[in-house]
Amino acid sequence: MGKLNVTVLRYLSKEDFRVLTAIEMLSKNHELCPGSMVAVVANLKSGGVHKLLKELCKHKLVSYERGAKYDGFRLTNTGYDYLALKALTLRGSIYSFGTQIGVGKESNIYTVSDEEGKQLCLKLHRLGRTCFRNVRNKRDYHGKRKKTSWLYLSRISATREFAYMKALYDRGFPVPKPIDFNRHCVIMELINGYPMTQINEVIDIDQLYDDLMNLIVRLGNCGVIHGDFNEFNILVTDEAKPILIDFPQMVSTSHENAKMFFERDVNGVRDLFKKKFGYESEDYPKFEDLEREDDLDIEVACSGFTKEMEKDLMDEYHGSELDDEIDDVSNSDDGENEPEDDEEMINQYKKQVENEVKYSEQSVKNKSEADKNNGILK
Ligand code: ADP
Ligand code: MG
Predict the structure, then answer these.
(1) Contact partners, residue 298, CB within 8 Å, separation at least 6
(2) What are the CA-CA distances from residue 167 to residues 176, 197, 247, 375 (Å)?
(3) pLDDT per residue over 147-160, tens digit each?
(4) CA distance linking residue 121 with residue 222, whole number of Å
(5) What is the ipTM of this complex?
(6) Quick one: average pLDDT of 3-10?
(7) CA distance linking residue 118 with residue 96, whole number of Å
(8) What is the whole-number distance in angstroms between the Cα of residue 125 and the centre of ligand 2?
């Protein structure tokens, strides 16, 4: 298991930060960013930028690649990590870094500490890293968003995870306490427990089975389905209580495939108990029996996600099994067209880089101020 390379957090200069931020902005509509354009957006002399880019390449925060039409730079995972971790450190949510405690399907998990020395859990979302090509091809075929990048997908994933975790935590669900997020990083309470995968003995098996099924029903009555309710995403504490984690793929009970998702979660628990403990029960929840008591799904949907974002992420998480249905129902263009390489766009990016730099120099202590800078539609 790798360690998070945080030494770069210390030695990078203000200019390095400017350059990285400029590439991040340009990545919204450039797979590769030409050096000259980076210089303009970073508002630095192009000769100087070249030297900076060379150093950043050496430290593997950016990479230089050859494209079909032109060559250019792109942010690496490490470069993007740096930007997020710097923001989280500046606003005091992270004080020091610990070690990697897990590798999920689409994430890396680390321990970190806050200023009081309290241990927390840091989740770095890593979407579309391996199947970027697939996603892009799919889009090209359908003639839709052509620049679905891992930066975008990872950021949406983390933002959704935080939004769901907060809505669940506020309602008293057994989930980690959400602490903060930025870009593709989420900071949450570190749970003292083990994933179900590592648990082979349970004192009261009926109780755990009931707790899990009741959890699925309680979620359903709030209008949501976890969507990946498996033994890796259920942590069990020393008191034998289940804690649910991993939320970016959650869906509304109003989703057209909701029944299928719900049954998959329920059957997952049934199969797991049968396989692991030889436990079978005829008592399990049915989708038809859900009674809506709350609109958690709507609350999260209202926190700023567009339909487009939802669809991109669902494609990524739930895959091709849903492709046809999704494409059928959502052909509406929400007007989010790709911006052109015009002066206006460049000026806009320039301004955003200035804002990021100013914000990073203020060393924001005030979280509500910081939250504004997390604007997911930025
Ligand atoms: P992925 O989306 O990649 O599956 P998860 O959120 O499921 O990522 O996390 C992967 C693993 O990291 C989990 O199976 C668990 O072992 C560990 N983990 C995640 N969040 C926490 C947490 N808050 N406290 C303790 N361990 C955690
Ligand atoms: Mg998981």
Answers:
(1) 223, 252
(2) 11, 27, 11, 18
(3) 467 888 899 999 99
(4) 26
(5) 0.99
(6) 69
(7) 10
(8) 11
Atom nearest to 105 CA in ligand 1: 3
Give the pLDDT score at 79: 93
Question: What value, to the nearest 5°, has the Cα angle with vertex 339 and ends 335 and 342?
Answer: 145
- Report the C-alpha dihedral over residues 141, 143, 149, 154, rounded to 10 degrees: -90
Task: Provide the pLDDT for residue 254.
Answer: 95
* pLDDT digit string, tens, across residues 234-267: 999 999 999 999 999 999 999 999 999 999 999 9
The encoded tokens of residue 162 equal: 């935080």
Pocket of ligand 1 (CB under 6 A): 102, 104-107, 109, 121, 123, 176, 188-191, 195, 232-233, 245-246
pLDDT value at 145 more than 60 = no
pTM over 0.90: no
Compute the distance between CA of residue 276 and CA of residue 86 in angstroms, rounded to an integer. 43
Structure tokens at 369: 């101020």
The string of pLDDT tens digits covering residues 89-139 is 988 999 999 999 988 778 999 999 999 999 999 999 998 744 444 444 444
Average predicted confidence (pLDDT) for the chain: 85
Let me know if 208 is exposed, middle or buried by CB neighbors in 10 A (0-12, 13-18, 19+). buried
Q: Could you say which ligand is closest to the alpha carbon of residue 247?
A: 1
DSSP 236-300: EETTS-EEE---TT-EETTSTTHHHHHHHHHHHHHHHHHHHH----S----GGG------HHHHH
Distance CA 329, CA 275 (A): 38
Choose which residue among 109, 113, 156, 231 to substitute to test ligand 1 binding: the one with the highest number of ligand atoms within 8 A of its C-beta: 109
pLDDT of residue 342: 78
In the chain, which ranges are E strands?
62-66, 71-75, 96-103, 107-113, 119-125, 178-182, 185-189, 193-195, 224-225, 234-237, 242-244, 251-252
Residues that are catalytic:
228
One-letter identity of residue 164: Y
Q: Which two tokens stand for residue 249?
A: 């793929």
Torsion (CA) 282, 285, 288, 293 in degrees, nearest 10: 150
Atom of ligand 1 nearest to the CA of 197: 14
Tell me the C-alpha distance between 112 and 375, whole Å. 24
Q: How far is the CA of 274 from the centre of ligand 2 (A)?
A: 21
